[in-house]
Specification:
single chain, two-stranded antiparallel sheet, about 50% helix, five-stranded parallel β-sheet, about 300 residues
Length: about 300
């Protein structure tokens, strides 16, 4: 009798152990499956922004609207005097009138769609890294933002010169800038106007005075030679430095839709850096969450 009870008890304990083992294995498999299915939390912070740009009809409509608005303004931009650039605000009207017209555009997320490396960052659960960005630029496979080609063609047909000012950066001040070579290669593949004219593609750090993220010095370089009739970009600094804009917002924001044309970009930008004050990783993420507004400010 005692032996029979003992045997039943052993069987019961063994059953419990096997059940526990099965549950543990199932949980481990589930955890591995979830890890495979979803990237780390950090990478998911820009998931919606990247997918909105890549898949939504709304993003495409926003981009087309901006470029069609700019195209519609071309006749009046050529007809009226003055300049769209803050750097020509004090230039004599007679001097401006003698200069050939030009439009300055940013490249990334204005002309070129770089949502693809952003998607890779999301999948990897990583932060932005210059090395990864450099590899992407060398691929020279960025596609066009909707509406960009048609606008550029209309501008050229109207006799307007095109300049691309980008914060893609040369690694040094030498003549051998691999970033510029790759950028030109991408623009040439896309058959964009002035793509084969290196002086019309101005990158950060090409010259000592172009070493900062501010594009003002490069706009000034163009302004010495052309009357800038319009600016097109996805970031406030494609139009004017942020520290100039903020105290003069009421005055300067009237230029949007008239001679300044802005494209949507929720993935990154100077607005993002302004939130985190050069912090990175989890520290930057924490600071962003602290700035969420959960009710209207009065």
């Amino acid at each position: 009798m005692i032996e029979r009870v003992s045997m039943r008890l052993n069987i019961f304990v063994l059953s419990l152990f096997l059940s526990f083992l099965c549950v543990t294995v199932a949980l481990e498999v589930s955890a591995q499956s979830n890890t495979t299915q979803f990237p780390p939390v950090k990478g998911r912070e820009t998931l919606n922004a990247v997918l909105w740009m890549q898949t939504s009809a709304e993003y495409r409509a926003n981009a087309l609207q901006a470029y069609r608005s700019a195209t519609a303004q071309l006749p009046s931009l050529l007809a009226k005097s003055g300049s769209a650039a803050f750097e020509q605000a004090t230039t004599d009207a007679k001097i401006l009138a003698r200069l050939p017209p030009a439009i300055i555009l940013d490249l990334d997320e204005t002309v070129l769609d770089n949502s693809y490396p952003q998607a890779r960052i999301v999948q990897d659960g990583a932060d932005f890294e210059e090395v990864v960005w450099g590899r992407w630029m060398q691929e020279a496979t960025a596609t066009l933002i909707p509406g960009a080609r048609e606008f550029l063609q209309a501008a050229v047909e109207a006799g307007i010169n095109i300049f691309y000012i980008s914060n893609r950066s040369c690694s040094s001040l030498s003549d051998n800038c691999i970033t510029k070579a790759a950028t030109l290669r991408n623009l040439i593949k896309l058959k964009l106007p002035f793509a084969e004219a290196p002086d019309h593609v101005l990158l950060r750090n090409e010259r000592p005075e172009w070493a900062t993220r501010s594009k003002s010095a490069r706009r000034a370089w163009v302004a010495e030679r052309y009357r800038i009739v319009a600016l097109v970009g996805d970031d406030l600094q494609d139009f004017v430095d942020r520290d100039i804009y903020e105290p003069r917002r009421a005055e300067l924001e009237t230029r949007f839709g008239v001679s300044w044309f802005i494209l949507p970009n929720a993935m990154y930008g100077s607005w993002d850096r302004a939130l985190t004050e050069s912090k990175s990783g989890n520290e930057a993420l924490s600071q962003k969450y602290q700035q969420l507004q959960t009710s209207p400010t009065r």
